Amino acid sequence: MNKTWLIIQREYLTRVRNKTFLLSTFLTPLVFVIIIAAVILITVKSVKEEKIAVGDKDGVLKEYLQSSKSTSYDFVDNADTALLSKDYAAVLLAPGNGVNKGTQFEIYSRKNLGVMTEESIRRQVNDAVQTRLVTQMGNISKQAYDSIKKAAKATDLNTKVVGEGSEVTSGNSGVAYGVGYATSFLIYITLFLYGSMVMRGVMEEKTNRIAEVVVSSVKPTQLMLGKIIGIGAVGVTQFLLWIILIMLMSTAVGAIVPPEVMEQVNATNRGMPGAAMTTQTNDAVLMLAKTSNTLSAVNWPLIIGCFLFYFTFGYLFYAALFAAVGSAVNEDPQDAQSLMFPITLPIILAIVIMINAITQPESSLATWSSMIPFFSPIVMMARIPFGVPGTVPWWQLGVSMTLLVAGFFFTTWLSAKIYRTGILMYGKKVTLKEMWKWAFKKV
Amino acid sequence: MEILRVEHLVKQFATQRAVDDISFSIQQGSIFGLLGPNGAGKTTLIRMITGIFYPDAGDIWLNGHRFDPVNDVIKIGYMPEERGLYKKMKIGEQATYLAQLKGMSKPDAMAAAKAWFVRLGMESWWGKKVEDLSKGMSQKLQFVTTVMHEPKLIILDEPFSGLDPVNANLIKDEIYRLAKEGATIIFSTHRMEQVEEICDQIVLVNKGQKILDGTVADVKQQFKEFLFSIELDDTEGLSSVEGLFDLLQKKEKKVVVRLHEGASNNQVLQHLMASNRQILSFHEILPSLNDIFIKLVEGTPTARQFLQGAV
User: Fold this and answer.
1) What string of DSSP letters covers B91-142?
2) Are residues B261 and B148 in the same domain?
């Protein structure tokens, strides 16, 4: 055990002291924040005011069409396309105005309007027409209609979850969705990132021929476990640093960028196809910024506890398999690719199941796959935020955790056997079939 | 005193029997040569002695006790043929780390590493990384990491490959010194001239089996072919003599003869003196280990492969 501890120390210290570790740890959150800041900046900057001339001799829009930040409307008598040369970005013609002989509104411009601008004009015209028709036909004032709309908008849907007994908690499936998505993706990334780090570490030891020197002093299992635990500790360190740095930086960004700007960024982003990603990021930031009340409804100690559990044992479960693959590979990275396939397949499958499970956390697919150790770290993490024991009964959580720990012992045992043979085998290309034989032959 | 005894060791792999019933013993303080062509089973044998593999059958006795891989590793220093070091690690840390893995405490390991670095003139390397060393330098470092925990049994697999003559001599002197101080050295190689020079006792393995065991002098006697090299002032008219010797080679003043069975050295000398020739020198040609090696393993596929490789 003492020697395993020495190996853990070496694996940890050599990696933590490495320049690439320091760079990636401190640059990643910086890059993350810079990207978000850049997205915000660009969207704010790119919203420029477009002047639009409106030809509306019948007064179908007048009084009802409201200018916004990105568009301002000038009602011009006898408006026609000739106005395009007079500083107007576009000319909007109601039916029967100028060249518009049709029954629909038409808009003319020299170059294509931006998708966002076009969308917001369409919305504003629709709004204007709707307001005119309602006020005229219902015979109510425009002010009265505005206040009706406002009141309707302010109505919210409060979701409550009835637990066992009469306990009622305010539910928030939106937050659960976000938290579940984030945590299971984090585990997914970790499995790959640190799993392949373990694999490369084992390959390095094998190709450097240091393995034989070391295994003449310690048992191969000790060397393998020392490496897995050491790299796991590096991963935890890196994550803690990231969390601290991102929190510091987002606080800084939040202090610099006022919430109204964020709102505006989101509003403009929504109408922009392909902006789903940034909208989501912004949504998440915004949600965290304004949902402190709903966030308190989430059982954070449980989620964080489960996250740490699934993070640790999910990593250990897969890292052992990655170590086994590393031990079987010779210098050729191509071999590593093909041998890694059986390990990466369940991880990718897990993320596919997760995307389905997060929308239906109680489906049988979600339930069963969250108990199979190959998928449980990712799938179960997506279900837990929806509530324990509401959505995930305690027994399911218990079975899932027990099976994962058992699975970890099994993969470590299996990998140790492959590792012991593979690490000393040089020059031969190893197939999966051979690895299978190594795992189940007698010592 | 016997430091190591192996009895009827067997190791079976999926397709072949890598070590097939090998037994031998080694005296403490001796330098022991483990010879054999590539694929003969040397490495497997060594891996069993170092506790990396468990034998399928047979026993290993270290220092009179049954070998216990967990606790006895500190008594063994092993430098594999396929050797390596952590490239990104500093040399001093690396030496200390490997000694700690053997079971030394950190301060002891540091002190031992420093002492060895001074002895081999490597003090200035302490803070360098392995990737900055030349092949010869890392070879020296590897040797240091093998012996710095003062093992009783040192196993060196091809220790001189890649070393220049100066450094090879340096290591050779250290090997002699360690043996003199009581360490036992197993020296695995297929470079026969080094074996002849260094080893007291040898074992030759081929295809997993022991085919020769003994001291270098004994082995040479065992395989001698009664060849003599004679230098004479005049070799004119000298020819084979029935019942005495065959003349094999004649070159100016030098001849090589093979004595017939039953003929003694003195009879040959008398015959030469009787023909009125001056004898300038007369000595026996013993076979080199290389000749014996080739003779013994000749004809087996591994040997042919080995011989081609050696050319």
Assistant:
1) HHHHHHHHHHHTT--HHHHHHHHHHHHHHTT-GGGTTSBGGGS-HHHHHHHH
2) no
pLDDT tens, residue by residue, A403-426? 999 999 999 998 988 888 888 877
Residues of B in contact with A207 (CB under 8 A): 84
Task: Check whether the bond before A389 is cis (ω within 30° of 0).
Answer: yes
Are residue B117 and residue B156 in the same domain, yes or no? Answer: yes
* Phi/psi-derived region of residue A5, left when phi > 0, alpha when psi is between -120 and 50, beta in every other case: alpha
Whole-complex ipTM: 0.77
Q: Which residues of B touch A216 (CB under 8 A)?
A: 50-52, 73, 76, 78, 80
Q: Is A439 on the interface with B (CB under 8 A)?
A: no
Q: Determine contact, residues A54/A92, Cβ cutoff 8 Å.
A: yes
- Closest Cα to residue A197, out of A219, A237, A227, A239? A227
Work out how many domains chain B is built from and give that number. Answer: 2
pLDDT in tens, A292-335: 445 555 677 888 888 889 999 999 999 999 999 888 887 777 77
Instruction: Identify which of A90-94, A253-257, A418-422, B172-176 has the greatest average pLDDT.
Output: B172-176
In the beta sheet, which residues pair with residue B59? B7
Task: Name residues 211-250 of chain B within 8 A of A (Cβ).
Answer: none
Q: What is the CATH number of the domain that holds B253?
A: 3.30.70
Report the CATH number of the A47-134 domain. Answer: 3.40.190.10
Is B66 within 8 Å of chain A by CB?
no
- Tokens of residue A317, six digits: 């479960």
pTM of the full structure = 0.74
Q: Within this chain, do residues B183 and B263 fall inside the same structural domain, yes or no?
A: no
Contact A116/B at CB under 8 A:
no
